[in-house]
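[job 0412] stage=fold_complex status=start
inputs:
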Amino acid sequence: DGGITQSPKYLFRKEGQNVTLSCEQNLNHDAMYWYRQDPGQGLRLIYYSQIVNDFQKGDIAEGYSVSREKKESFPLTVTSAQKNPTAFYLCASSSHLAASTDTQYFGPGTRLTVL
Amino acid sequence: AQSVAQPEDQVNVAEGNPLTVKCTYSVSGNPYLFWYVQYPNRGLQFLLKYITGDNLVKGSYGFEAEFNKSQTSFHLKKPSALVSDSALYFCAVSFTFSGGYNKLIFGAGTRLAVHP
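[job 0412] stage=fold_complex status=done
writing structure:
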């Protein structure tokens, strides 16, 4: 899990509620990512960011929002518009988004459950 | 379309025996391939990657992977399995999309069970 921290480890959300997942890295990486993991489906990209104040939608961005106000931080908000948010959420970072050979390093994850 | 396939949902192997976890890929351009391991309720840990050069790549915890361009495969191997190797393994390929950015495309994962 290296220098990437995610909090909380477990999160419970009520219907209609927005929740924010924290991701912090001390690796001095430019690029950060959010993935969603569901059983048997591998990882799917939600959002990614190359630099501060810049981020792009990934493959499944609907119902999610992000911000990148600091290089070290990339919080993910799961909004009430996300109809099936129960999943394991993983944050990752890499040196540069444009470097195809860079390794992505992952945080320990946050398990979100809708009550 | 860029894709990664892990044809086995689960692989069972006895402790001490060699193990292989299979991965095939489809990508335009040069393939940059990665293997990660995930223990229960944990994040993904990087094992190894193939960028260029020697087709046999050595990684963490005694794992290695063989790149085969003609078969478009990147199988993960270990000569002697340990019970502690039991985990979920993901193969991934790096893909460059519009704008010059890169992302990883993951396979669905293979669960490795090593029995004493």
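[job 0412] summary: Residues 17 and 80 of chain B are 5 Å apart (CA to CA).
[job 0412] exit 0
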